């Protein structure tokens, strides 16, 4: 059911493609997270000195 659901949303063969290109996709994801890492190096929160919705949202996205 998972493969059927994913292929209906992202196209036929997507799960196989993700598996085949796992190393590249993980490396690309790490590259895309670098700006956020840089922001969090200076402060524990993204925009202010207290948590905002964007902080909880980022936590949820990365948790999933």
What's the order of the H and E elements? HHHH
**Percentage beta strand:** under 5%
Roughly how many Å apart are the termini?
Answer: 19 Å
Low-confidence stretches: none
State the shape: elongated
**How many domains would you count in the coordinates?**
1
> What profile does the largest beta sheet have?
none
Strand segment count: 0
Radius of gyration: 16 Å
Q: How many H/I helices?
A: 4
Alpha-beta classification: mainly alpha
Q: What is the percent of helical residues?
A: over 70%
Mean pLDDT over the full residue set: 92
Question: Could you characterize what this model shows?
Answer:
This protein is elongated. Helices cover about 75% and strands about 0% of the residues. The chain is mainly α and about 60 residues long. It has one domain (about 1-64). It has 4 helices and no strands. It has helices at about 1-10, 15-20, 20-40, 55-64.
Notable features of this structure?
64 residues; mainly alpha; 4 helices
Secondary structure: elements and pairs:
Elements lengths: L1 H9 L3 H7 L1 H21 L10 H11 L1
Summarize the structure.
By secondary structure, the chain is an all-alpha fold. It has helices spanning 2-10, 14-20, 22-42, 53-63.
